[in-house]
Amino acid sequence: MKKFMNLHLSNKRKAAIFSSFALLLLAGSFSFFSTKDSRSFQNFAKDFFVSELTANTLNMHYTVATPSSFGIDSYESVLPFYSKEDKEASLQEIVTSLERLYSLDDSKLNEQDAYTYRLLVPYLENEKTGISLYYYSAPLSPSSGMQSQLPILLAEYAFRNKRDVDDYLALLDQTDTYFEGIAQYLKEQSAEGLFMPDYSVDKVIEQCDTIMDESSLSQGTHFLNTTFEERLDSLLSSGIISEEEKQYYISQNNRLLTTVMLPAYQKLGDELILLRGSGKNENGLYYYPGGREYYKYILRSHTASYRDIDSIKALLFQDFNDNFDSMYGLLQSKPSILTAQETSSVSFRFEEPSDMLKSLQQMMQEDFPALSEASQGGELPICTIKSISKNLEEYSSPAFYLTPPLDDIRENVIYINQKNNDGGVELYTTLAHEGYPGHLYQTVYSQLYFNKTDVNPIRSLLSYSGYAEGWAMYVELMAYDYAKALMKDTNPGAEGLYESYKLDRQIQLCLYSLLDIAIHYEGANYKQVHKILSTIGISNVATTRAIYEYIVEEPGTYLKYYLGYLEVLELKKEAQRLWGNDYSEYRFHKFYLENGPADFTNLKLQLEKNKDTKKS
């Protein structure tokens, strides 16, 4: 509601305002007075946003570039701390937040706030469940734990001003207490009988020894040395810091890396050695006392799907059978595909990642809204492609995209893991997943749209991995069709080959998703999983063991990709049913981008609510 800033109104303007006010009263709506819930919700959203960001400077820096623009005028540079006290405080904050939300009537909120309200309530209810099962989480998971994530986040920590550099150094100085908190959590987790199995412990210990390499740190060649200097050079060239200040900052960074961060990693590794052998379960969550309940929390949290387990399994089984039949039919009609595997990557039309991204942007134009539609005439994003440090190659995915801050979305980075990069059509589809029309495009378009429509920033704090990864999986598979079109004239035989790659990817991810449920919810052990995999030709013990251990260590991860993808397809079917002849790929994609991130239940409700809205 706008404040009345100019009190010197003419008589005519006063009369017009009074008449409009009277008409509202005569209409019997009394909407002028029904603003209490709206104000309460907006105050809650602002308080929640500021509280969440100021509790973790690392998260805040990656969420907003200019904190003061979001009402954060002062803050301390802090990393979160794992403790029972913080857990209880977090639980109480969620309980209090839900009480405030329950007291509101969402029918009295404007359309955007009402939608945000409907997203917040089930989201916080699920988080309440997660916190109540505090000791089931794995902060040092071998594939996604903070021991491997923290160095990447520090290496990409943007320096826009001196305060950013000071904050960065302050965070470095806290890595010892941060890891001490994690170590204490792990001791308590062990006492609860919930500590990770030895095969996971061994992987994390190796990472602690490798990631913070003492030799490269002493020589100043570690990526946390070199990336720090590169970011300082940018501030120097902009006149923000002097050469003297640059050298001071470099000396401080070198000191903290060798005297705080390196010892922190070494001590963490030592703590893990002492805890090794205390894990009581080498299998899935099923074998922990509250494991199935925690798994249901994980599914909701990771996939953004609120389906029950039986419904999820039915969806997966149907998809598996459909794709298996399609693969069988394809190989029957084109048996030469089986002998064409070796020449696929060298024959692809593009080799350079930058050329692949340009191609993807061209191929997607017809069916996806342009970023310029949501940009309000502002600058469009740029994308930098970087290779991940060799220190992290063993522990990182083939590629990943770092989400930019809400208020500075121009600079975007995609990391490529050269160790796991085969090039060719596989890199092309990976870049579709991470770049266009995947994460980069989705993130930038949604934020541009949010900026244009003044969406409450609290929405950015709600993490719906299934929404984001489901979309990225959806467009990754679409990119195989783009690749077929690119090769149609120069290599017509590639069509069948690329279709087999696409089907193989779907069959594999669907199978792993089903195994995820079998391991964590139904109690399948390694021998049973090995037997299942052997029936489809995956019988190497090292391979099946690696698959099993990854799923044990990362519950719900395959499902956030593949169930997320299937939920996108289900939403698409619903859009086709509701819109009939007015349906188009463009309209559906636009709807998806402008109504998320969200859980799929609320997306479906939004679809039904806006079924009569014509394509813009």
TrEMBL record:
Q: Which domain of life is it from?
A: Bacteria
InterPro entries according to UniProt? DUF885 (IPR010281)
A Pfam family per the record: DUF885
**PANTHER family found in the cross-reference section:** DUF885 DOMAIN-CONTAINING PROTEIN, GLR0591 PROTEIN
Under which name does UniProt file this protein?
A: DUF885 domain-containing protein
Q: Which UniProt keywords apply?
A: Signal
From which residue to which does the signal peptide run? 1-34
What are the top taxonomic ranks of the organism? Bacteria, Bacillati, Bacillota, Clostridia, Lachnospirales
